[in-house]
Amino acid sequence: MTSDPTGTGSAGPDDVQPVGMQKPKGLFGVSDTGDTSGFGGLVQATPSAGELVSTPEPLGGYFDEIVAALREAHGDEITRAVVVDRGELTIHIAPDRVAEVCKTMRDDESLRFELCNSVSGVDYPDQRNRLHVTYHLTSMTYRRRVRLETAVGLEHPVVQSATEVYPTADWQERETYDMFGVVFEGHPHLTRILMPDDWEGFPQRKDYPLGGIAVEYKGAHIPPPDERRAYK
Amino acid sequence: MTATDNAQDAYAAERDTTEGRVYTVTGGDWDELVASVDPVSEERLIVNLGPQHPSTHGVLRLVCELEGETVRSVRPIVGYLHTGIEKNLEYRNWTQGTTFVTRADYLAPIFNETAYCLAVEKLLGITVPRRADVIRVIMMELNRISSHLVALATTGMELGALSMMIYGFRDREKILDIFEAVCGLRMNMAYVRPGGVAQDLPRDGLKMIRDFVDYMPQGLDDYEGLLTGNAIWQERTQGVGYLDVSGCLALGVTGPVLRSAGLAWDLRKTMPYCGYEEYDFEVPTHNGADAWARYVVRLDEIRESLKIISQGLDKLEPGPVMVEDKKIAWPAQLALGSDGMGNSLNHIRHIMSQSMEALIHHFKLVTEGFRVPAGQVYTAIEAPRGELGIHAVSDGGTRPFRIHMRDPSFINLQSLPALAEGGLLADVIAGGASLDPVMGGCDR
């Protein structure tokens, strides 16, 4: 894994990219001519690979209402991108506007996302803004779910804290800091939570090794899991 | 205590640190200690409860600031059982993932597996056969009962009702016996797999489950006879560990704790999965919002789970328990042999001496695994302790790119200061036990 700061991300506000690290090729991922079934030549284009592609509107269902209410409160530029995938809505926002967006999501009459279910991070090492933070919100009133996503780079990994709006984000943001090194501005006491206080490094980053020791069994040498042969 | 004493007695020394004076007490010179630190004085005493303590529900450390017997502040410290499950998942294929997630919340393994498999299936865009869905529901509800039984048993033990512990574990054992008959393991069974379940119910499995459903109501009546009318139990739990609905929502608390505050939020009803909308059951709630209410809600939930299991048994119809797609379905089959549960000898014979293609197929799927289209999903189910969410991200490969488990123990533990501060030290234990945290799930 490389932490190349340039990565594949392009400049501008469209640097938030969802998943899509590699182009699936062939039915079993064979890159040479090993597959004689004919499926080896198949190349599937992943719409989410590379630059972020917003889903064309209307999005359908209640998704349009949520996006419209959010834009009405904060202006059109609040949503960097809106992606609907597998029946789930993801709204990409700027890292310094998390708190105000969360406040609207919680308090707006037509939104009412009372519960913040989950805050966690994802590391996309090939992107310029590689550290993503996702917030999964649930509206108990309307029985809806939505995902907010924001992305920051390693040189300035600062995201606004949502603890003022959702106190439950407290430990979850600490965990995200612990595991990814994302600094949450405005968090009351951002310290490590799962790892020891004096731990160095951020274990869930992709360039952090899994570790482990090699095992020898009856003469066979088995390397630790992160050094074993992997399929592409 | 003089300086010479300190030098001689390494086990009852006092030392000055930047935090203040620290005393190490292992018994013995209590008179001297009380003389040097008067607990009724205005000074506050910091007491470390845990991480190794029988009443902290596992390796949980509570730093309590005491004023006499009154708790002025509690700071839960977690992470002692962090095993890096989420990181490990990124180095195994999607099917192997079930064996890791099942070890997170070790009292609710079936829930971990089901939530994870629902996420993988949503990423794949597949639906599992109906029989697999019904089996999942039956196994989940059995698991919910066993988990609630441990909650009742350990709460009983921590509050001094030792008989409850014995009865709770006795009846949980019957469920573990069912699990063992169904999948060969009592805990951490990796029974639910992406695409269905590992194998069908055994021939005598249905009878075992029916016997249990017939047996359990009597057990519940026994618990009620033992605890509900018990004055000590009432005194220790009623009005203790109060947390109302707004407090629950602000702190993200779900599950029996939220329902004990009066909000009937149960994902099985509000956002059904695995066909729960077909089952007829109630969502028990209570208005107490205290440890007593949580006890009542858990007992009622066991009764509702028994109803669901009975209905599930009636819904079982013959059919496959794994998706038909051979590019996803696990090729090996399990069978009961003379030496216990293991690979089906018929399958071994087929791949080793009948079909080279079957061997290649088996080898590719087991060592490499199937590919999951790129994307991210969030699935949530109602685990015994609340919402168990899985945020799964795939990059299109054979291994998870990132799995995050939103474990209810982790989230619910945040509310411990809110429900324990201002109360007595003994109520920290009662309140904490009523949250029913499982540190394996909390720390993952």
Give the name of the CATH superfamily of the domain at 13-17 and 52-200 in chain A: NADH:ubiquinone oxidoreductase Nqo5 subunit
Tell me the series of helices and strands of chain A, N- to C-terminal. HEEHEEEEHEEE
Distance between termini of chain A? 13 Å
Please give the number of β-strands of chain A. 9
Question: What spatial form of chain A do the alpha-carbon principal axes imply?
Answer: globular
Mind telling me which CATH architecture of the largest domain in chain B this is? Orthogonal Bundle
CATH class of the domain at 13-17 and 52-200 in chain A: Alpha Beta
Instruction: Determine the mean pLDDT of chain A.
Output: 80
CATH level-two architecture of the domain at 13-17 and 52-200 in chain A: 2-Layer Sandwich
Catalytic activity (chain B): a quinone + NADH + 5 H(+)(in) = a quinol + NAD(+) + 4 H(+)(out)
Family (chain B): Belongs to the complex I 49 kDa subunit family.
Pfam family, one (chain B): Complex1_49kDa
GO molecular function (chain B): NAD binding; NADH dehydrogenase (quinone) (non-electrogenic) activity; quinone binding
Describe the structure.
- The complex is a heterodimer of chains A (232) and B (444).
- Chain A is of the alpha/beta class and 232 residues long.
- Chain A has a domain at 13-17 and 52-200: 2-Layer Sandwich (Beta Polymerase, domain 2), CATH 3.30.460.80.
- In chain A, 15% of the residues lie in helices and 21% in strands.
- Chain A is built from three helices and nine strands.
- Chain A has helices spanning 63-74, 98-107, 169-180, and strands at 81-85, 88-92, 115-123, 131-139, 144-152, 158-160, 183-185, 215-217, 220-222.
- Mean pLDDT of chain A is 80; it is low at 1-21 and 45-49.
- In chain B, the strands form five sheets. Chain B has a three-stranded antiparallel β-sheet.
- By secondary structure, chain B is an alpha+beta fold.
- Chain B contains 19 helices and twelve strands.
- Chain B is globular.
- Helix content of chain B is 47%, strand content 14%.
- Mean pLDDT of chain B is 86; it is low at 1-7.
- In chain B, helix 5 (109-124) runs antiparallel to helix 6 (130-158), helix 6 (130-158) packs antiparallel against helix 13 (291-315) and helix 7 (162-183) runs antiparallel to helix 8.
- Chain B has helices spanning 3-8, 30-36, 85-89, 97-101, 109-124, 130-158, 162-183, 205-228, 231-237, 245-250, 256-260, 267-270, 291-315, 345-353, 356-368, 408-413, 416-420, 425-435, 439-443, and strands at residues 14-17, 20-23, 45-49, 61-67, 70-77, 192-193, 196-197, 334-337, 340-343, 375-383, 386-394, 402-406.
- Chain B folds into two domains: 3-77, no CATH class; 86-328 and 370-443, Cytochrome-c3 Hydrogenase, chain B.
- The chains are: A alpha/beta (232), B alpha+beta (444).
- The interface between A and B is large, with 54 and 56 residues.
